[in-house]
Write a structure and sequence with these properties.
Number of strands: 18
Radius of gyration: 17 Å
Largest sheet: 8 strands, mixed
């Protein structure tokens, strides 16, 4: 197992539902695709929950998502079905605060999810000593081709350490404003097939993002989780390893930790 990784187990929970010891380290657990459990200073946040065996025609090819325990909030980057999976949201987000981009609340609230706090880029919400700020993202946030239209954001989680969750995005100039301010960058590096389209990062472009942001640690996400059913499936590259190779060339000062679905890593403040 690579240095720094542990098999993901549901963290011990105190009477208030928060993980013991969470104030001394930041824990990042990747559940597959863009679903990450961030535990920082006693606050537990889950990004873009995709926890089931299917999303539309796509099937899960990674191990099943582990138990998530108590959540302080769900961070929703946009409404695409592989990020705002309705079955997963109903599993985790009934009564749990959802932070989402502008325009997402009507779609979520019609489905009895929330409460929803819509955030414009630069706006933030605090949970104790942890502040969650919406960041820019370059991606089309419309649900389907003719479906509900809402914005698209990333999130910057600031506590004793700072975690950047990019959501879905392409490269954009304002990424440079994050340089020197991020301890852990969660960067999408692929999708569910052999390539990604406009508005996404592939492994090489994600490494360029790492070179711009210059985090202490970069973790590739959004790969190796969903695929077409077997008769239609094309072999996808090992995007985690590809990202690590590109980052070694383009961002040599950034430590890359490649997790597999269900693994976690810890970072001291």
């Amino acid at each position: 197992m690579p240095h720094g990784l542990k098999t993901m187990l549901d963290a011990p929970v105190q009477a208030n539902g928060r993980a013991q010891g969470a104030a001394t380290t930041t824990t990042v657990a990747w559940f597959g695709h863009a679903t990450v459990l961030i535990e920082i200073d006693g606050v537990r946040l889950l990004t873009d929950p995709v926890l089931g065996r299917r999303v539309g025609p796509l099937v899960r090819v990674a191990p099943a998502a582990p138990a998530h325990g108590h959540l302080d909030a769900v961070l929703l980057s946009h409404l695409h079905a592989d990020h705002a999976d309705l079955a997963s949201l109903r599993r985790v987000a009934r009564g749990t605060p959802i932070l989402a981009p502008r325009g997402a609340a009507p779609w979520l609230e019609r489905r009895a999810l929330g409460p929803v706090n819509e955030l414009d880029v630069g706006a933030s919400v605090s949970f104790g000593e942890v502040r969650v700020e919406a960041t820019d993202a370059r991606h089309d946030g419309q649900r389907w081709r003719y479906g509900h239209r809402a914005g698209c954001v990333g999130f910057l989680v600031r506590g004793s350490t700072t975690v950047y969750f990019a959501g879905d995005t392409d490269l954009f100039p304002a990424m440079a404003e994050l340089a020197g301010h991020v301890d852990v960058a969660l960067l999408p590096v692929a999708g569910w097939g052999p390539s990604v389209g406009h508005g996404h990062l592939d492994a090489e472009r994600a490494a360029r993002a790492a070179s711009i942001i210059r985090p202490r640690v970069a973790i590739p996400i959004h790969w190796g989780t969903l695929a077409l059913p077997a008769p239609l499936r094309r072999r996808a590259p090992d995007a985690g390893a590809e990202f690590a190779a590109h980052a070694a060339r383009l961002a040599p000062g950034v430590e890359v930790r490649v997790l597999h679905a269900g693994e976690r890593t810890e970072l001291a403040p």
